[in-house]
Amino acid sequence: MTTFPSRTVRGELAKYGAFARVGLAGARAEPGKTYAGIVFLFVILGVFSALWRAVGAGGSSAETRGTMVWYLAMTEWVLFCAPQLHFDVEADVRRGDVAYQIARPVSYLGAQLARAVGGMALRAPVLLAGACAAGLLFGGRPAHPAAIVRVVVIGIGAAVVMSAWYVSIGLLAFWLGDIAPVYWIWQKLTFVFGGLLLPLSFYPDLVVRIATFTPFPALLTGPASFVLGHPMFGTIELFALLMLWFTVASAFAVMLFRRATRTMQLNGG
Amino acid sequence: MRTSTIGGTLRFAVALARTSLAAAMAHRGTFVMQAGLMALNNAIFFTFWIVLLRRVRTIRGYGLSEMLVLYGIVAAGVGLAMVVAGGMRQLARVIDEGELDAVLAQPKPTLLYVLGRRSGASGVGDIVSGLVMIALSGAVRPIGAPVVLLATVASAVMMVSSAVLFGSLAFWLGPIDAAARQLSDLVVTFSLYPEPLFGGALRVLLFTLVPAGFVGYVPARLIRAPSIGGAAELIAVAAAYAALATAVFARGLKSYCGGSRLDLVG
């Protein structure tokens, strides 16, 4: 009697584990995307290293050029870890693939997320090596080396939460057709509210106050600010925030998916 | 005879751009949303410079006004390139997947077809936001509008030419779609930061292989300090780069084997 539920849980886990392996295989089959990410990391860190050299770490006495470069290396690493699921979901919507995938005994949304996590298993360590190499090259030794470990652990969680939001963005294709403009806005909001290029503390109080009502600080500046020596959130607080935003993102995705599939029409065979 | 051929090609290019733009605008709501979101996108990104320049005033001679002109001209140039030559982003994929077959039999130049048969609606948002930024910079008076127009066209020509050069590598290297796009993105990325940040070999690169200098720095300089010499230099470089890109594409086309595809070309 007691074995049935656990077998069910195990079965469920096995299903999503299979999707994770598909994601891992996909990341292995397309190493170009990961290498391109590393090249971009080197370019952007090189540009910002030159920028911080020119401005003296943004006129801030608290930050050195090295810590600012490491901060950027970590925000970019988290950003690149999360696979661009929204475009996959958009393609599924456009081709009509969602229609036959929902007939499977597995959640479409869960399968997408599992694929993302599987891909991350390969991308995250490779990109981390690239980010650290670029950080060392342009920023020298990190001022707080132990903080990198904390960034890595929480950063992976942040990348998973980001993937959950990407699924929601992709689902908007049911109504918008092309989700690129929505993604651009999301991307630019991560620039500002997420503190992608500059720590959020550089921005005016009003921006910081608005940002606290959004998921962005927990996704990027939260984990990366550990390397500055004065983190924006404590470890437990940040973990709780990530859980909260994961729940919100998942609920939003489920709501969108239910609404879309309720009105979905199938044509042809 | 030759003049009429050039005139005919130009008329065709204008008609193609107009048709592609009309197609992009067919879904009015989507078009307005894409253009508007792109303009908003630029405005949000520019907050980075506002925040930074509030702290340090200038970065090696670049203040807010200079950054507005630089960002504005790159946005307007890239936007114009996307509107009239939206196919540039897909060039490498089109070559690699044999999609050129469908346009090879057309009576007008193949490259023109491939570039002009798509128009990026978001480019309109780029153009509008770019011109607004230049106007807000306070560096241009209404009489300087022709210079802004020249700089925008030259920047767009450089952007399209570099995309054609990167995309044409697919004739010899095969599936390099992602790499070609990334190289084009690299041109835009570098052109959005102040010129004096980059020195040495990188600077040489930015004025040759990755021509960010001619997409952003030189057109921006011309807008801030118009001169006949500066305009002539920009026109000459843009024309030379366009000629080089066309020649490389034509050379690659000779080695093109085709993909045995049958498509309808409208």
Q: What features would you describe in this structure?
A:
The complex is a heterodimer of chains A (269) and B (266). Chain A is an all-alpha fold and 269 residues long. Chain A has one domain (11-262). Chain A contains 13 helices and no strands. In chain A, helix 2 crosses helix 6 (108-139), helix 3 packs antiparallel against helix 6 and helix 7 packs parallel to helix 13 (235-262). The longest helix of chain A is centred in the middle third of the chain and has 32 residues, at 108-139. The relative contact order of chain A is 0.13. The model of chain A has no long low-confidence stretch (mean pLDDT 87). With 266 residues, chain B is an all-alpha fold. Chain B has one domain (2-254). Chain B has helices spanning 2-24, 28-56, 64-84, 91-96, 101-104, 110-116, 122-136, 145-168, 170-173, 177-191, 200-206, 212-224, 228-254. In chain B, helix 8 (145-168) packs antiparallel against helix 10. The mean pLDDT of chain B is 88. Classes of the chains: A mainly alpha (269), B mainly alpha (266). Chain A binds chain B through residues 32-33, 36, 39-40, 43-44, 46-47, 50-51, 54-56, 58-60, 176-178, 180-182, 184-185, 187-189, 191-192, 197-198, 202-204, and chain B through 30, 33-34, 37-38, 40-41, 44-45, 47-48, 51-52, 55-56, 59-60, 122, 178-179, 182, 186, 189-190, 193-194, 196-198, 202.
Structural class of chain B: mainly alpha
- The total of beta strands of chain A comes to 0
Q: Tell me about the biggest sheet of chain A?
A: none
Per DSSP E runs of 2 or more residues, the count of β-strands of chain B stands at 0
Supply Rg of chain A.
Answer: 20 Å
Number of domains of chain B: 1
Integer average pLDDT of chain A: 87
- Which residues of chain B sit in consecutive blocks of at least 5 with pLDDT less than 50? none
Determine the strand fraction of chain A and express it as a percent band: under 5%
The computed structural class of chain A is mainly alpha
Gyration radius of chain B, in Å = 19 Å
- The level of helicity of chain B is over 70%
Helix content of chain A: over 70%
Low-confidence stretches of chain A: none
How many helix segments of chain A? 13
Considering residues with a beta carbon less than 8 A from a beta carbon on another chain, report the largest interface and each chain's count: A-B, 35 and 30 residues
